[in-house]
Design a protein that fits this description.
mainly alpha; 3 domains; elongated
Length: about 200
C-alpha cells in the first residue's frame, strides 16, 4: 500500500522517489503500530506465537513467520537454476557463431577481459576486436539464436544495477527500486502459479 501511495503522489520535481517512498513506508508502519498521531502512544499487545492462527489457515502464529534463511536459500536456488539454463542457452548459441567470434564473446563476458587486453593477446588492433565482437553479438541477436535467448532477454539486459536517481527514471521509466519491486512481484506470481498447479 505504501508503494502504491508513493507512486500515485510522486512529483519528480520535488524529491527522489526513494525519499518520497520512505515517507509513505514510515506512515504506513505508524498506522499499523497504532501510532498515527504524534501525541498518541502505541498500544502494545503481547501475543503468544503458540496461539492458533486466526483465519482460514490451520497452524500457529509461529508457523506463519518467514524464515529468512529459507527465503534466501530458495532465492539462491532459483537464481542458480536460472543461470544454469541461461548459460546452456548461451553455449548453444555460441556454438553457431564463428569460433574466433565466440572466443571473443566468452573472453569479454565470461572472463571479463577488455577489448584492449584481447587485442594485446591476439596481436590485433582494438578496432578489429571491437568489430569482431559486434559481428558476434549481431549473430547472437538474429535467427534461431534470438528465439533461443528471448526468454532470457530481460535478465541479460537487466536494469537492476543501474541508477536510482531521477535521471534513471526519465531514461528507463523507473528506478532500480521500482524495478526490484516489479521483479519481486513477477517472481511471486510465477511461484504462486507453479505451486497451485
Amino acid at each position: 500500500m505504501a508503494l502504491v501511495d508513493a507512486v500515485e503522489t510522486f512529483d519528480p520535481e520535488r524529491a527522489e522517489f526513494t525519499t518520497h517512498l520512505s515517507y509513505y513506508v514510515r506512515r504506513r508502519f505508524s498506522e499499523v503500530m497504532g501510532n498515527r498521531g504524534a501525541k498518541k502512544r502505541p498500544e502494545i499487545y503481547a501475543i503468544s506465537l503458540d496461539e492458533p492462527f486466526d483465519g482460514d489457515t490451520a497452524g500457529t502464529r509461529a508457523d506463519m513467520l518467514t524464515d529468512p534463511r529459507a527465503v534466501e536459500a530458495f532465492d539462491n536456488l532459483v537464481e542458480s537454476v536460472h543461470n544454469t539454463q541461461l548459460h546452456a542457452a548461451l553455449d548453444t548459441c555460441l556454438a553457431t557463431v564463428e569460433k574466433d567470434h565466440a572466443d571473443i564473446l566468452r573472453a569479454r563476458y565470461y572472463q571479463g577481459k577488455t577489448l584492449k587486453a584481447l587485442a594485446a593477446e591476439s596481436g590485433k588492433a582494438v578496432a578489429n576486436i571491437r568489430q569482431q565482437e559486434s559481428k558476434a553479438l549481431q549473430s547472437m541477436r538474429t535467427g534461431k539464436n534470438a528465439s533461443r535467448l528471448k526468454e532470457y532477454r530481460e535478465h541479460i539486459t537487466s536494469r537492476s544495477y543501474r541508477h536510482s536517481s531521477f535521471s534513471a527514471f526519465q531514461s528507463a521509466g523507473g528506478s532500480s527500486v521500482e524495478w526490484a519491486v516489479e521483479k519481486l512481484e513477477d517472481w511471486r506470481e510465477y511461484w504462486l502459479q507453479e505451486t497451485s498447479e
